[in-house]
Amino acid sequence: MLIAQAIIDGILVGGFYALMAAGLTLVFGVMDIVNFAQGALVVLGAYLSYALSVHLNIDPFLSLLITVPATSLLGVAIYWVLIKPIKRDRVVMSLLVMFAVATLIEGILDWVFKSNLVQVHASYVNKSFQLGRLNFPAIYLYAFALSVGLLALLYTLIYRSRFGRSLRASMQNPVAARMVGINTDRVSAITLGIGIGLAAAGGMVFGTTNAFNAASSYDLISRLLVIVILGGFGSISGALVAALLMLVIQDVVAVVWSPVWGQTTFYLVLVVVLLLRPQGLFGRRAVRAQ
Amino acid sequence: MSVLTVEEVRKSYGGVQALRGCTMAFAEGAVNGLIGPNGSGKTTLFNVMTGYERPDAGRVLLRGRDMTQATPDAVFAAGVGRTFQLTRIFPRLTVLENVHVAAQRRGLLGQLRRWTSGAEHERALEALDFVGLTRLSREPAGSLSYGQQKLLEFAFIMVASPSVMLLDEPAGGVNPTLLRHLAGRIKALNAQGVTFVIVEHDMEFVMGICDQVSVMHNGAALMEGSPEKVRSDPAVLDAYLGTDVSAAEA
Asked: Is residue A193's pLDDT more than 50?
């Protein structure tokens, strides 16, 4: 029964890790940059929901109506102000820019909120549902439903809209995309906005299920990178499967063996998969057509 | 009348001067050839004319309108489509989706529309039919042969109804049967008023299809004229063979 509970917990938590990782892998797929600021942006989203909850008494889920558009606009601004002007070594310089953004966000959050651990509260955070001997924490269920909804929306946007077709074209061959008149700068800016908006949504869930401070971003970005590398950089479905797989394995190992090994297994699985399949579970050896 | 004009265009990469004050004009409604030895600057000139490279100096004019600083998507929107030496397609989209991407309306509002309109779909099917790829429309574009990918690239440029098409080595790596098919399509579109500028090393193809030919050498225009005139010009032979043919004959 403990193992069944661990599997359920792993799936529920894996759902919102998939949400945060989807933003990271989407940005890499279109722009070829690893958004090192994703962890800090998740924590920013958590703090925004926390501030709205504490000061304006806004429900964490409702706060997404404010935080997601606001952080999406921040993403668009980051692209136009910091990334687009880079003329040389754009991929490498973008990494440094996003690292600088992460450091800046962390510094500001630490200055504003201090380093005390906080958590986003709502009436249902400590409630849970029972099904036989299985326990379903309400916040995890709601968060999982939110993740499924947002990922379905993302899927519809990517595979059932003109913008999504332009986005996929830009991912596969940016030169050809420009050749047929796609404004790849605009696609990149909107993609970064979507990626960071997803980080904010994940941040709200992270903030309601964990005590956090500005430094929490380091653990988050390492975990998100593991998920994205395991799923295959640029693959959204890969990120989804990898998130569920990693969190389930971690939780099962934690129950069967020990919580310490649960954490370690997270990274051991990555090493094993990369040895057997270096491009990740769903990655392609040549992501871009030449 | 000239449709595309470049005036005194210069472009350097480090210490290498790819274009050295190149001035050239391409006639409206014609099939224009652009030839020259390897490294003469043809592809760089294409890149400058289509917004992929900014010239260090000089101007690019499209029917008198200054396009020197235009981005590739703006050049495309102005009615200039181009292909590359190596095919540029979307390998994991289907053949039909490739053409849909090119057919769909631009602009933010156009992007927010849900899916392909009936008119856009019809145009995409017509383009595929035009190049003979209809039966492969549901296949991933990456599974096509190189020659078929060239035809697909041609289709997804023409579906946007450009008034000028710049083709960079369309004959490269294409088998003779597909090449004849491609030549036929170029002639058919030209008869409908589309202007072509074609960079090509296959002289038989160039001389057979072009109304006039411009020659580049060392990053500048060497001469222009009818295919017959260019073929027999000693300066062109010098440029290609690297010897002073006229002096040798004397």
From this structure: yes
**Residues A19, A202 contacting (CB under 8 angstroms):** yes
Residue B46: per-residue pLDDT: 94
**Tokens (6 digits) for B153:** 């690239």
Tokens in use for B170? Answer: 């369309």
B74-94 burial, b at 16+ Cβ within 10 Å, e below that, comes to ebbbbbbbbbbebbbbbbbbb
The ipTM estimated for the assembled molecules is 0.72
Contacts of A184 in chain B (CB under 8 A): 73
Asked if residue B27 has pLDDT above 90, the reply is: yes
Q: Does residue A133 lie within any of the structural domains?
A: no
Decide if pLDDT at B250 tops 80. no
DSSP code string of A43-102:
HHHHHHHHHHHHHH---HHHHHHHHHHHHHHHHHHHIIIIITT--SSHHHHHHHHHHHHH
pLDDT by residue (tens digit) across A87-122?
778 778 888 999 999 999 999 999 999 989 999 998
Q: What is the CATH number of the domain that holds A14?
A: 1.10.3470
Q: How many domains does chain A have?
A: 1
First to last CA, chain A: 51
Residues of B in contact with A181 (CB under 8 A): 72-73, 76-77, 102, 106, 160
Would strands B212-217 and B31-35 be described as parallel, antiparallel, or unpaired?
parallel
B167 to chain A: closest CA residue = A179
Task: With respect to residue A289, please indicate whether it lies within any of the assigned structural domains.
Answer: no
- Provide, as residue numbers in chain A, all residues whose Cβ is less than 8 Å from the Cβ of B106: 181-183
Nearest chain B residue to A166 by CA distance is B101
Region(s) of chain B under CATH 3.40.50.300: 1-79+162-250
Interface test with A, best of B50, B73, B112, B113 (most A CBs within 10 A): B73
pLDDT band at A278 (very low <50, low <70, confident <90, very high): confident
Q: How confident is the model at residue A287 (pLDDT cuts 50, 70, 90)?
A: very low
Min Cα distance A1 → chain B (Å) is: 44
Task: Decide if A241 is inside a domain.
Answer: yes
pLDDT for B114 beyond 70: no
Q: Range with the lowest mean pLDDT among A249-263, B98-112, B236-250?
A: B236-250
Interface mutation target, options A84, A159, A162, A288, chain B, most CBs of B under 10 Å? A162
Who among A161, A181, A290 is closest to B76 (CB)? A181
pLDDT in tens, A255-272: 888 888 887 888 888 888
**Residue A23 maps to a domain:** yes
pTM: 0.78
Distance CA A244, CA A250 (A): 10
Question: Can you name the residues that pair with A135 across neighbouring β-strands?
Answer: A130
The CATH fold of domain B1-79+162-250: Rossmann fold (3.40.50)
